[in-house]
Design a protein that fits this description.
- With 219 residues, the chain is an alpha+beta fold.
- The chain contains five helices and seven strands, in the order αββββααβββαα.
- The strands form two sheets. Strands 2-3-4-1-5 form a five-stranded antiparallel sheet, with helices on one face. A two-stranded antiparallel sheet has the order 6-7.
- The termini are far apart.
Length: 219
């Protein structure tokens, strides 16, 4: 099972263990004040109740220079409560989408310049993510189910994690367990103990109130 937020539909025993969450993203054409080849790094904008992430399409890629911004969950009604358990990615929360559309001019300020003549927003979309109680994926053979394997619940980081987890499962399914165990952190492996814990809210998404962030030097 490599079905992330939809996994409990296939395997009801995972109901409440892996919870779907609808996320929102937008693609922005770069303003006149930004380099056309794209930004030199990725960014995260973290605040007390949530965050946004920002990446730039690299030179030579489709839509090079376009800026992808996603997040904004807690801007929605009840801090995004209604996005939990949602599996419909054909619709979007207009509050979150409208917020994301304004992020580039807000974050870049006067450095943004003028909007592209064809419009700032190129595309908007949603996708269904999978979340677990401890904030880690489930990878490996499902306990007590011979021949049933899983790689799911990537906490919104599937593009980063799914490739190595797939390689790991391939090793595991070909009786190369020792090699597989070297591929991933121990906390990723599915266990009977982890399956006892149901989802109660996202982890790792808020800044602790007592955390002091270091000032970054101006480039």
């Amino acid at each position: 099972m490599a079905t992330n937020g939809y996994t409990a539909k296939l395997w009801p025993a995972l109901q409440g263990v892996i919870v779907p969450l609808r996320g929102h993203a937008t693609a922005h054409r770069p303003g006149s004040g930004l380099p056309k080849e794209g930004l030199p790094r990725t960014y995260s904008f973290i605040y007390e109740d949530g965050y946004e992430y920002m990446v730039s399409r690299r030179p030579g890629s489709t839509g090079e220079g376009d800026i992808i911004i996603g997040g904004g969950l807690t801007i929605g009604a009840e801090q995004g409560l209604y996005e939990y358990g949602t599996t419909d990615d054909t619709a979007a929360d207009p509050i979150i989408i409208d917020y994301l559309k304004e992020t580039t001019t807000r974050y870049f300020g006067r450095n943004w310049g003028n909007d592209d003549p064809t419009g700032r927003i190129k595309q908007e979309w949603t996708g269904i993510m999978g979340y677990s109680a401890d904030g880690f994926p489930f990878v490996g053979q499902v306990p007590g189910e011979n021949g049933l394997y899983i790689a799911a619940s990537f906490q919104g980081s599937g593009m980063v994690l799914c490739f190595d987890t797939a390689r790991t499962l391939a090793l595991l399914m070909n009786d190369e367990a020792e090699s597989a165990k070297k591929m991933l952190p121990e906390c990723f492996w599915i266990t009977e103990e982890r399956l006892k814990h149901t989802f109660t809210g996202r982890l790792h998404t808020k800044v602790p109130k007592d955390l002091k962030l270091k000032e970054q030097p101006d480039d």
